[in-house]
Amino acid sequence: MRHPLDIVAMFAALWLLASMMLDALTPKELTAIMIGVAIGPAIVITAVFYYLRCPRTDFAVIFAALWLISDIAIAFVSSKELPHFLIVLGFVPALLIGSVMHWHRFQNRHERLPAPSVKRG
User: Fold this and answer.
1) Which residues, in sequence order, are CB contacts of 106 under 8 Å at separation 6+?
2) What count of other Cβ atoms lies within 10 Å of the Cβ of residue 109?
3) How many angstroms separate the CA atoms of 15 and 35, rounded?
4) Which phi and psi angles does 29 have, rounded to 5°?
């Protein structure tokens, strides 16, 4: 069973870790506090969906969208232009999840029912 305090501790640790890692990768003008404020809402929303036991696929799509939104928020907060690899890093989860979902759909195409045919009468 997922206890709310465990979820809070887990996502707070992930928030702090992500803020510090992004602080090391971004320009010096962008501090860990500014990054923490930019990614904070996404972490809270992700934690709420985790607590509500959102289905795994939906949770992954929500996470990818929130990660991209956080990347855009960091770009807005930054006074200098972000390195190009950080902009690409925002798209990586969405591309990865989209690729996995497309691959599963490709693998399971034979299990889907054929389209109904129109009978002429």
Assistant:
1) none
2) 8
3) 10
4) -70, -20
The fraction of the chain above a pLDDT of 90, given in percent, is: 57
At which residue do the structure tokens 């305090």 appear? 5
Task: Tokens 């190009």: give the residue.
Answer: 84
Rounded distance, CA 40 to CA 87, Å? 18
> Cβ(29)–Cβ(78) under 8 Å?
yes
Radius of gyration of the chain (CA): 19
Contacts (Cβ under 8 Å, ≥6 apart) of 40: 15
Report which of 98, 35, 36 is spatially closest to residue 63, judged by C-alpha positions. 98
Q: Flag whether pLDDT at 113 surpasses 70.
A: no
